[in-house]
Amino acid sequence: ASVFVSEELTGPTITLVNPAPDGSTTLSNPGEFTIAGSVDMETPFLQAFIDLGERDFLVGQLTGLPSGEFELTRSTGSYARTDTIGVGSLPIVGGTLPVRVIASTGPNGSGIVSEVSTTVTIEDVPTLPILPGLFVDGNATDILGAAPTLAVSDASGPNPGSDTADFGADGTLTELRAVIRDETLYVVIRGDMFGPDNDNFANGSFLLVDVNAGSGEGATNIAADLDDFSDGLRSDISAMNFVLSGDLVASGHGIDLVVGFAQPGIAFGYTMGSDGLPGSFDNFEFQQNIVAAYDSSVSGVPGAAGTTYAAPNALEIAIPLAVMGNPDPRNIRLAAVTASNAEVGGFPSPNTLPENSSNDFTPTQVIEEMAALPFSESGVVINEISVGEVDRLELFNPDPAPVALGGWLLRIYDSAGIRADFVIPDGVTIPADGFLVFAEWDVDQIPTSIEADLYTGFNIPWHPTRGGAIALIDHAGIGRDYVAWRNQDGESSTVTGVIPPGTTFTGQLDSPRHPSAHTLARDGQGTDTDTADDWTNTSGVDSDGPTFGAPNIGGTLPQRDQWMIY
Predict the structure, then answer these.
(1) What is the pTM of this model?
(2) Strands 519-522 and 381-386: what pairing?
């Protein structure tokens, strides 16, 4: 048997009215989204979609639609606007978004199908702020803007004609900076460097890394300890005549990782089998995930006296912490060095960072110091959290001196997969034995009865029905504190937050259940063991409210005039 289908049979003709078929419709932060139009024949099945970046979202569908007009509307929601998105709401985003409508002559999309598409531009949708990522891309400006300075040249060498450079030759290093961002160590070395177009691998700048200072592991005399001559680059590293000073050796320092950028534009990193890393002193392990690049565009770095910049003036490096065995970042130590023609009897440059004191072109260069990420031993902790009508949080400084918090980061997580970052403004200080209270939104957007010292300017997307977390991270990217909690029903809501390197958190912490206060509080003494045992679910001193700006339940401020200093 055969079936004849007329070539004149077609699906419904769909005419769009909203959004306009020419893509000219623009909406400003809409509370709902509508797709409207008409069909020219009875349509058993019609669906409308909008692409919100991750996937197509169904705006609505109709069955048994007669010839004529149709309209489909769906509410929108955004965690930047409110703590909850209603069931069935579109998680709206900004941008120019594809829209399409599909109609069919049969049920559930069967039969002959017609489709039309357009775009709609949605503007003014608030977004939660996220600290931008850093990139190794031949332009070190972003890392320089984020990374604190670890070491600089003091222009005291044999050619003191420059404010920042020691030597009248290529290879001068002037500044070393580093920061941790997104579980990666970013480093920038500035100076008048050998570029990747030199004739010899050894003409270059290198980063020497001790991943766990004080462990007593790692190379202390590179030429004597390292013995991998299996290719030219490994030979050049093994021949670099740098040694650690007796004081560094005595304090347990050692080189576990060598990173650089070599001709013809190859980033490399080698581990030597110390501190649990792969490889050995006579068989280096190449680390593929390390990225490096030279940058010739960074301005403001004068050449050494009598020289000009014919070579790059910055080397940027990204080392995932996982490559280094996820060390405590407080124990990482760095030194930048330059080697010149080592394999043909040349010299290691005396211009190390941090600088050595000799400043002499000798066959062996002593590394007298290694740089650490800046870290103050302050005990500032997250002390109280409110997940209520207005979300708030409190920091507490148990130390006898104020602590500058400018550039520190509050990283906010929610089990709905949300993240927001608040960078504490420069100049902000938390007093000795004092508190610092943060509230969501701006001061004129919340009830006057709720007080805070600082306002985030955006919605903190915490809600009692979901789990949440918050991290306190200092300006070098080192985690100072972290706490996470389940939802109000005690369910283990998965918080997608990553505990920042430098701190930890263990145990299960329940969300507060009080209907109005919604407060989590550390114990009254500010105990910090990085466990859930430090915290309690509380509604305040007398259950009438939280204790922001004051000691938590059972706590008192120390009477320091009664203390004795030994």
Answers:
(1) 0.84
(2) antiparallel
